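Hey, can you fold this one?
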Amino acid sequence: MQMKGKPLLIISFLLVIFSTASVWAQSQEGVEPFISAFTQSVVRNPEGILLVYQENFAVRIANPVVFNTFLDQQMESGAVKVTKIDNFGEIQEMIEINTTQAFETDELRAWDAIGGRIGDESYRFATIFHEGYPVSDGDVLTITWVFFRTLE
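Sure. Predicted structure:
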């Protein structure tokens, strides 16, 4: 199977999707600086078998201004992967953050969030609500959070 051209096709597809999601999120938030987001959630059991795979564009950014401060701190520390992309002449940063959670009890997951600290304050920056899925003791959830923000 030839991979030539496929990465560009995938990136182009994501840019179109994120451009569409960006318009929706901006009209919902009405706050600059603008951030759009996407998540991939994967749950594996202790043997490594895939139990759940979900993608979600309905990411709620609680406070974009504070969240941008957090993203800047994460970028400065090198804790996140950052890629600059040209989206039809508009330069954007694609910022990837991976979170992992191991479960010790059986439960039903219907939402997840990413949070952090700025100074002495704790914040919940982004939340996703999704179709629920069961997890059991020993299962591991990995979420890749992908945030796009336009550079001025």
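The two ends are 40 Å apart (CA to CA). Let me know if you want another pass with a different chain boundary.
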